Fold this sequence. Notes:
Blueprint: H1 2-6, H2 11-14, H3 18-25, E1 29-34, E2 37-49, H4 68-71, E3 77-82, E4 86-92, E5 101-111, H5 113-119, H6 132-138, E6 156-159, E7 168-172, E8 186-189, E9 202-205
Antiparallel strand pairs: 1-2, 1-6, 2-5, 2-8, 3-4, 4-5, 7-8, 7-9
The chain binds a DNA duplex through residues 47, 49, 56-58, 61, 64-66, 80-86, 88, 90, 103, 105, 131-134, 137, 174-178.
Amino acid sequence: MELVYSSILPRNFYRRDTITVAKELLGKFVVRVIGQDQLIGRIVEVEAYRGFDDPASHASHGMTPRTAPMFGEPGHAYVYFTYGNHHCLNVTTERIGVAGAVLIRALEPVEGINIMHRFRPHVSCVELTNGPGKLTKAFHIDKSLNEIDMTKRGPLFLKRGDSSEPVEMSRSVRIGISAGTDRLWRFFINGNQYVSRVLEGSRIRT
DNA sequence: GAGAAGATCTCCT
DNA sequence: GGAGATCTTCTCA
């Protein structure tokens, strides 16, 4: 467990350009601690959302009670409820006062898969976390975790991977938005079966 | 206070 | 592939 905590992503990781953070989050690990249990998933798909310059972002109209975390300290969780059914998990980026967040859209289950199945019974392993609403359900993430500091040990945080191997990724337009569709701010790991949807994109190598 | 929209998922055809 | 579920948030009067 100590090794897990020592590799938690620090505040400085998030206090950068949102697009850069989004790309570098691929291959990192989400850790959810529930009592004595630990759920871990590898990030395979993300989307970047910014502020006034991004019409698809909740923060495009400025700060509201809901979007306040996007303008706050980087490295915090921004969890919101949508379509009357689903929660979505974001991590805040940029410096204080500048809106930015990265939506975590899909994970590859690594540890605690049996517990994820408890929260999402009757689905295959691939279906557990291959979508923003699915992964929050499998990881038991809801608004009670909104604004939680993800740079400290707690119920939810992100950590580095064990290897520093380059990740081969692609980019595409973001999914489910009606504005800002000219921006290729969705990033996903090439060929990963846990990516939520396959869209035409361009390949990048880091 | 009312109405509309929404970063989704699942079931049914 | 299409439509319904379901409720929070925001805008406008």
